[in-house]
Amino acid sequence: MMKQWPSVSIIIPTNVVGDLLRDCIAKCQQLDYPRYEIIVIPDRLPEKIKERGSVRFLPVASLPGEKKNKGASVAVGEILAFLDADAYPTMDWLSKAVPYLLDKTTGAVGGPNLTPAGDNLPQRLCGMILSSQIALGKFSKRYRKSTYHLPLEIPSCNLLVKKEIFRQTSGFPKELLTAED
After folding, report:
1. Which of 38, 39, 144, 169 has its CA 20 to 30 Å from the CA of residue 67?
2. SS3 call for 68
3. Can you tell me the distance from the alpha carbon of 57 to that of 11, in angstroms, rounded to the nearest whole number?
4. Across residues 5-16, what is the average pLDDT?
C-alpha cells in the first residue's frame, strides 16, 4: 500500500434525492480508500437530508455540466471523481483507479458503465444491448469490461480527473442536458 494516497472528491450531480442516490452514497461510504469526501449536488435540498460525515450537499438548480463544475469548484480533493447518482462504485473503485493517476503522463481515467448484477431482467437486457458491438459499435466499450486502452472519450458517470488538469480546461459545457462529458 502506498504511503500517502492523494485525496479524492467524489462529485455526484442529481435532479432529486431518492433511493438511487441513497444507494450510491451508501456504496461510496463503503469504499476501501482512506481519503475522500462526497459532494452531492441536487436541484434542491429536501428538509429530511442533513450533511453526514464525509457527505456534503450543495443544492444547484441547473444542468449536469454546471453541477459538475460547481462541485469541482468547491472540491478539496487532489482528484475529482465524477459519478452519476443512479450508479454506484465497487468497494475498490478508487483504490484501483487512483494509481493510474500517479503517472505524470495520465490526467484522467475512467471505467465502463456496467449493469449491476442485481438489476431486473429489463435492466439487464438494456445493459446487454448497450454492450453489444452490433448495437453501438466502438462505443459499446463504455458498457463492458475490456483491457486498458486509450479511448477517444470517457463517460462522466465513472470519471476521475486530476484537479490541476480539470482547472486547465473550461470544465463541462454548462448548456447541455446530456452528452456534457
Report:
1. 144
2. helix
3. 10
4. 93
- As separate numbers, helices (DSSP H) first and strands (DSSP E) second, the chain gives 6, 6
Taking the whole predicted model, whether its pTM rises above 0.90 is answered as no
- Higher-confidence residue of 139 and 71: namely 71
DSSP secondary structure, 92-132, as one string = THHHHHHHHHTSTT--EEE---PPPTT--HHHHHHHHHHT-
Cβ atoms within 10 A of the Cβ of 73, count? Answer: 11
CA 68 – CA 137 distance, rounded (Å)? 28
3-class SS at 168? coil
Lowest mean pLDDT among 55-64, 77-86, 116-125: 116-125
What's 48's DSSP letter?
T
Half-sphere exposure (CA, 13 Å, Cβ side) for 10? 31
DSSP label at residue 7: P
C-alpha closest to that of 10 among 2, 26, 63, 100? 26
* Per-residue pLDDT at 20: 82
Helix (H, G, I), strand (E, B) or coil at 32: coil
DSSP assignment letter at 5: P
HSE, side-chain direction, 13 A CA sphere, residue 57 = 21
> 53, 138 in Cβ contact below 8 A?
no
Distances 87 to 24, 26, 114 between C-alpha atoms, Å: 6, 11, 9
Q: Are 28 and 93 a contacting pair, CB within 8 Å?
A: no
